[in-house]
Structures are given as C-alpha cells and as structure tokens.
Amino acid sequence: MTPRIRTLALACATVALAAPLLTAPAQATPEPPRTGFEETNGARWTTQPEEQKLLAAVDKASDRVSVSRIGTTKQDRPVQLVRIGERSTKNTVLLICSQHGDEPSGRDACLSTIRDLAYAKDKKTERFLNRTTLLVVPTANPDGRAADTRGNSDGVDINRDHIALKTAEARATAAVIRDRRPDVIYDLHEYGATPKYYDKDLFDLWPRNLNTDEAVHGEAQTLSKSYVRPAAEHAGHTTGTYGIWTDPVTGEPIKQTAGDGQERILRNVSGIKHAAGLLIESRVDPLTDAEKNDEALNNRRRVTSQQAALGGLFDYTDERRARLERATDAARAEGYRDRGPVYLGGADNDPAEPSEIIQDPPCGYRLDAAQYADIKDELALHGVTVKRQKSGAYVPLRQSARALVPLLLDERAPYHLAKGRPDMSC
C-alpha cells in the first residue's frame, strides 16, 4: 500500500474512542454523534436505541448518507441499509455487519465507520466517496443482537440461509445483492480462539466455492493478502486464514474447520454471485492478562482490529477499482456463454469428486406449476432469470446466474430448493 492510500485508510477506519476522529463539515451538527461503545470507552456495546439515534442523526446531518429499511425481523425490528457516497458508479462495496448476534464488534466498527465517513472533510475521503458507493447493513441480525444470540429469534443461523432464503434477514441481504450488484461483499464476524493452534487477532477468508470466477477469486485473495492483512498488521494485530489450525512450531496446517465451499454461507454466495467476498473474524478471547482483567480493553481491541482491516478494504477499493470492475463485469457476462462445468462440491483447497461435477450441464431446468409457486420468490430474490410457461416455468442456464441455477434446482446439489427436470435438448 502506498503512503497516500494508507493515510486514507487510517483517516477512514480508526475508531474514535476518546473523541471524534474526523471534524464535522460546516453544515453538520457541531459535534458528530458517538456510539454507546465510544461513550463508555468500550465498557459495553452500542444499544439498538443508540444505533437508531446515531443513524438518524447522521442521515439528517450529512447529504452523503441515506438510511432506509430493507426488511423487518420476526420481532418487528428494522433491517436497515446505509448508503454512503452514492454515485452513478460501477464500484460498489457492501458491508454486512454482525450476522451473528453474539458477535458485536463488527457492528460497532461499522457504526463508527458510517459516522466517520459521513462527517469527513478531507479531500482524500471525498475523492474516495466520489468514486465509490459504500453500502452498509449495520445490524444484519437485529433480533439476535438484542438477545445476544448467534441465531435470529427463531434460532436460525442467518449465515447458513443464503441459498434457501427462509429468514427475513437473509432475504433482505439477497435483495440488496441482486439490486445493487456489489463488487465487494465484506462480512464481519468474531471467533473463539484455540490456544497455540488457532489464536490470531484477526482471521479472514475469501470464497472457496469452485464456481467462483477465477479473476474474482483472485481479487478476493488480493484483498485479503495484500490489503486487509497488511493493514491489520500495520496496526499491530496478528492475522491468518480463517478455519486453518496451524502447528505452532512448523507453521504447517494441521486441521481445517471452516465451511470451505459450502454455497449457503455468504462468503461463498458472494463469489457465486460475482463479488469479491471476504469473511473477517476478530478474536473474542482476551489476548493478555490486562485484557482478562479489563473487559473494556478486550472489547476495544476487538473493534480496533476490525477497523484496521476496514482500512485495508478501503485501500484496496481505491487502488484496484479498475481491475475489480473488469473482473466482476466479466464474471457476470460469462454465464451467457454457457460453457464449462458446474461444481456441486469441493473447494479451492479441496478438489471436487467426480460425482460433484456436472461436466455437461443441461440447457436449463423445468419446474411444474406447484414447484414454481413454491420457490418463485426465492428465485426472484436471487436474481435468477425465469421463463414462465403454461405448465410452470423454465430456468435457462444461459444467464448471469448460470452457476447458481444447478445449486438451486439440481437434485444432486446439497441445498437445492426444488428437483427441477434437466433439459438436455441443447
């Protein structure tokens, strides 16, 4: 990263725990709002009323920010989308914060980032926002955050619902991805460490699903290895690859625990939907005796590590926007060529078995009327092109969502929504 870009990262991504990081523009309120986390110096997490108050204040004070409701949870809480620096530009970045309600550091990092970007006056930030649309779902699981639970109010893990789309929360995310076609989808989480083998300050992981376009996969790895990790390390945090246990002496991998190529996880759906996805995981457990004795100190480290990584994301977006746009545009167009296999299993670190590869995919899948009625909303949320017929519907593979169609409709796919009838007439 160049010094110029690193300055932008630090300007945009450092949490203002003791005082606001960025000065307010003349038309804004004299003092930018602060999160509950900042007000208590990390002693507790920002409450949902405090979140709503901050978002309302930012929405009112800054013409570069807009807040809207994109969904409603079972317990009637809003799922909201914050749009920052919205421009008629291809380059769009989506942050999904705290899908798991008991992993709050990403949410507080997102809230303070929204505020900092809204009130920034420096030319570097203005230039960045003039060329980038940043979308943020600050609390992707409001009911889970209220209850401090991993799942939503029905106990469903939202991050295992990005294929079936049964939850209101996952449906809201799918609609944003369909409508806004983000180039990057950045998913903020936390994890519990295992001493010696699995204990970095911050882990990340790109889409491993084999249906991810090669260039998009490469951009996601570049985001991780050349930007996010260096930015976190520059701020004093250790980093590694999520899900990989390593031998403390040799550094060799000894165990794999992540979801690998499982398509229903947002990290992998991101790649299948042609975005450079990245999962980010901050360490929950205290690192030092001081953190063990001071929960606020531990909490601050969790949030600042997330903020440092966000700085790397912004650097990446600013430096590689042209390469990223070329990769995502080409990936979205590739499905219309209707060539190559579709993978029902495997990952970039785990070759697919022959039974997991559709070497000669069908032209499409036919659904009868009952099948189509049952899943038409989900197909629409995924952005899948469907041709209505008297007998039901026909879903062609020749479309941008080519690789996704068999995952939804082939009976061999692990998480299929319906058993479509393959059309091999082509």
UniProtKB/TrEMBL annotation:
Q: Which residues form the Peptidase M14 domain?
A: 44-283
Signal peptide range? 1-28
Q: InterPro entries from the entry?
A: Peptidase_M14
Superkingdom of origin organism: Bacteria
Q: Which GO terms describe its biological process?
A: proteolysis
Name of the protein this chain belongs to: DUF2817 domain-containing protein
Keywords (A to Z) from UniProt: Hydrolase, Metalloprotease, Protease, Signal, Zinc
Q: Which SUPFAM superfamilies match?
A: Zn-dependent exopeptidases
